[in-house]
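Sample entry was shown:

___
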Amino acid sequence: MTTTSPGWYDDGQGALRWWDGANWTEYTQPRADGPAEQPTVPIPPVPPVPQYPGGQIPAAFTAPDTPSGYPATNYPVSPDATSRASTEPPKSRMWIVWVVLGVVLVGVVAAIAVVTPMLITGLSPAGAPSNEDSPGEQGGGVPTAADRDAAVDAVERYNDAWLTGNCDDYFATTTEEYRSEVVQITDCASFVDESRAFTGGLDDYEVRVGEVEAVGSAIAVSTIESYTSLFDAEGNQTDEPVDYEDRWEYIVVSSDDRWLIDDSFFE
């Protein structure tokens, strides 16, 4: 690679420009054969430049690879472009901080919206009772341990009512909707008749209470009801008693300060 020595060379723009050996500089002077013009800036301190008659540059200084104009990779497009780039203040990054703060604020508001109803209603995130001593209320609230005992008592009295034909207990342990829509017995005479038919073919009836759990403001009571009967599952009479073990689940609700059976499911 050929290197051109520092000196004044024709820049191809009608003037002589100082070449520092690696790059064109901003210092110029008029050509000897052109109009007189004084440099606008002082010539930088450089090693002595040989003077030649008539200001002409000997051919030896014009290297084959010396460009006739500005070297494209060394001379800036605009004289003040570099100074503007170096003096331009850095752009603010505060918008990033505000975006992050906005995201955090939205998360805090969402958390408050979720937690506040839980604190007001006294429920845990899963909806389970958070306080065993909170009072049960009609249509809402969290059942207490006393409420659960009352619900179990209602289920046991209901089963005894069927075994004994006690119409008062039948009405005292069930809601009107349960009697009309589930059992479909709404008067005492019909209940007594159905009770007799129920107990006529079975013996050793026993109710064992299983799991008791709150379902919202209601209580679910599971039972295992075992007995023997002289009838098979299709209703045909048998020669020997058949052992049965039925599993039921009763949904008990609070109404007028009492716990009443509102639905039941045979499992």
In short: The chain has two domains: 7-87, 136-266. Residues 36-41, 49-87, 121-139 have pLDDT under 50 and may be disordered. The CA atoms of residues 207 and 225 lie 5 Å apart. DSSP finds six helices and nine strands in the chain.
